[in-house]
Amino acid sequence: MTALFALATSLMWGLADFGGGLLTRRTPALTVVVVSQSIAVVVLGVIVAATGAWSEAGPQLWFAVAAGLVGPVAMLAFYKALALGPMGVVSPLGSLGVTIPVAVGLVLGERPGLLQFAGIGVAVAGVILAGGPQFRGAPVQRQAVLLTLLAAFGFGAVMALIAEASTTVTGLFLALFVQRVTNVTAGGTALYVSVRRGGRALPEDAGMQVVRSALPALAFVGLADVAANGTYAMAAQQGPVTVAAVLASLYPVVTALAARGFLGERLRGVQAAGAGLALVGTVLLATG
Fold it and tell me: At what angle do helices 241-248 and 215-238 cross, to 10 degrees?
């Protein structure tokens, strides 16, 4: 079940990233984050009310609050890094966030078997290669590298935090709701500050009409991201965090394949090799 939930996580995160990437081509990234997460808050609020999840409130929800604060910071750092440096450098470095939950699992005493250790190494290598690493070209700004590493740490920290935010299914609904409310609050504050400083909240050409027409896509991105967090938490609770984290981090492969399938983008040789290695690593982790 751990492998199944974790692979479902990578599928949904990968599709959410693909959808979010398309949306940010016309709409400011902060607006995409705030609107998509606001839709998720509404849906989760209904689920929490219907299931009586409020009864699960407790100190563990502070982990959800922390995840909600770290997530937007990591995303903004990642977008800023993409603006400063080539995607062939930023994307693979961003995938290193998987080392955070893996390290947490090892510190907590998890000891994967030999096949699983091999699977972790192969899968992580596959994820990095699937990002299309750039081995040659102009020097990369130090700020871009630092921002990417900050984003990677944030992505990994969110995975570790959300896994600690609940122990039951209804508690997970509440934790995800709290995380999303925090996301919207933090993202909304950043958007307000950005607009006050002269930034834009809406596209220059069609304004609110673009956002309204994109609401179905925004809803998909927000809800897929929420579902991915939920399935990851369940994967981490059902089995080794080291295995769950690595399998859940295969989402860059999904994003690359989605770009190939929906946009006709050709995979570079290094990306195809990465996808193959990720598949081999998945098999080793699932059977180890």
Answer: 160
Which residues fall within 8 angstroms of residue 237, CB to CB, at 6 or more apart? 163, 167
Let me know: does 166 contact 106? Beta carbons within 8 Å: no
What pLDDT sits at residue 144?
Answer: 75
Contacts of 272 (CB under 8 A, 6+ apart): none
pLDDT, tens digit, for every residue of 158-192?
989 998 898 889 999 999 999 999 999 999 999 99
Structure tokens at 246: 């690595």
Q: Is the dihedral of CA 111, 98, 8, 132 positive or negative?
A: negative
Q: Which residue shows structure tokens 């990437």?
A: 21
User: Considering the entire predicted model, what is its pTM?
Assistant: 0.85
Phi, psi of 202 (to 5 degrees): -130, 155
Residue 269's contacts (CB-CB under 8 Å, 6 or more residues apart) are none
Block residue for tokens 């603006």: 83
Residues with Cβ within 8 Å of residue 204, at least 6 apart in sequence: none
Among residues 126, 89, 90, 135, the alpha carbon closest in space to that of 273 is found at 126
Q: What is the pLDDT of residue 38?
A: 95
Cα separation, 96 vs 246, whole angstroms = 10
Q: Is the pLDDT of residue 205 over 80?
A: no
